[in-house]
Specification:
about 270 residues; alpha+beta; nine-stranded mixed β-sheet; 9 strands
Length: about 270
């Protein structure tokens, strides 16, 4: 059997967590990632019958029964994942009844998956219902989008249109817009359920005064999506309070969508 540290999914998690830390998105132990893996990818490196520990879940995740995921650990620093993957993340499998999960690798020395695991699982379930190719959930704390939630109206439509107008590529990258939640206690089923409700229609949900929850089919999609949102927020925060002499109009945003064969979120453009 191949060595697990050589698995493409382990190496990609090491690479992406290191990148996110360098971007300043995941200070200390802030942020978490989960990735749904194909069984055939896992069994090249792990024996699915060798279960290290079984831990309970606080909700019914039976929609993911039998699914394998690689997940970052609770209380773990992204800066350390690349150096010591087996302590800072692990591979889990959701039980058939959806009420527990098996740890198959990682989380050494008594570690566990992120405290946001229920939120991750709820949002995987929600996204899979609208996109069967969905695989990634990524949570991080980029400074500019976080700052923007303090000074901007938290209405989904208003927030989306501001971001769309900050850069030509924004409506192309996220034509469905973004969603926003008011501040909520993190790590609870309540924030997981509220996020899952929003994430059915947008791949980005902002948690006010907290950060971003993003979803997609692969690491590049989600990282690039968050990167684009954060860049737009940076532009907004730099020009905030100044007189705006020109901006991308709704007609111009519609022209962009037409050129790229995209459909913007219904009712968001005034045409």
């Amino acid at each position: 059997m191949n060595h697990i540290l050589e698995a493409p999914f382990v190496r990609e998690m090491c690479h992406i967590t290191a990148n996110m830390y360098r971007m300043g998105w995941d200070e200390r132990n802030g942020g978490n990632i989960s990735w749904i893996l194909e069984e055939t990818a896992v069994t090249q490196y792990l024996d699915p019958n060798e279960v290290l520990r079984t831990l309970p879940l606080s909700f019914d995740a039976s929609a993911l029964a039998g699914r394998y995921l690689i997940v970052t650990g609770t209380g773990r620093y992204f800066r350390n994942v690349e150096r010591c993957p087996q302590e800072n993340m692990g591979v889990i499998r959701i039980a058939q009844d959806g009420r527990s999960y098996d740890i198959l690798w990682g989380f050494e020395h008594g570690g566990k998956p992120t405290s946001e695991l229920p939120t991750h699982l709820m949002n995987h379930i929600a996204r899979l219902r609208v996109d069967p190719q969905h695989r990634i959930v990524m949570h991080c704390h980029p400074a500019n989008i976080l700052a923007m939630t303090y000074v901007h109206d938290l209405d989904d439509r208003a927030f989306t249109k501001t971001l769309w107008r900050m850069s030509t590529e924004c409506i192309v990258v996220f034509p469905e817009g973004i969603s926003v939640l008011p501040w909520m206690v993190c790590g609870t089923n309540e924030i997981g359920e509220a996020t899952a409700e929003k994430i059915r229609s947008t791949r980005i949900v902002l948690w006010a005064a907290h950060g971003i929850f993003g979803a997609g089919r692969d690491m590049d999609e989600v990282f690039g999506l968050i990167e684009t949102v954060e860049k737009a927020a940076e532009i907004y925060m730099k020009i905030g309070g100044r007189e705006i002499r020109q901006s991308i109009t709704d007609a111009e945003l519609a022209a962009l969508c037409k050129e790229f064969g995209l459909t913007p979120r219904e009712g968001y453009l005034d045409l």
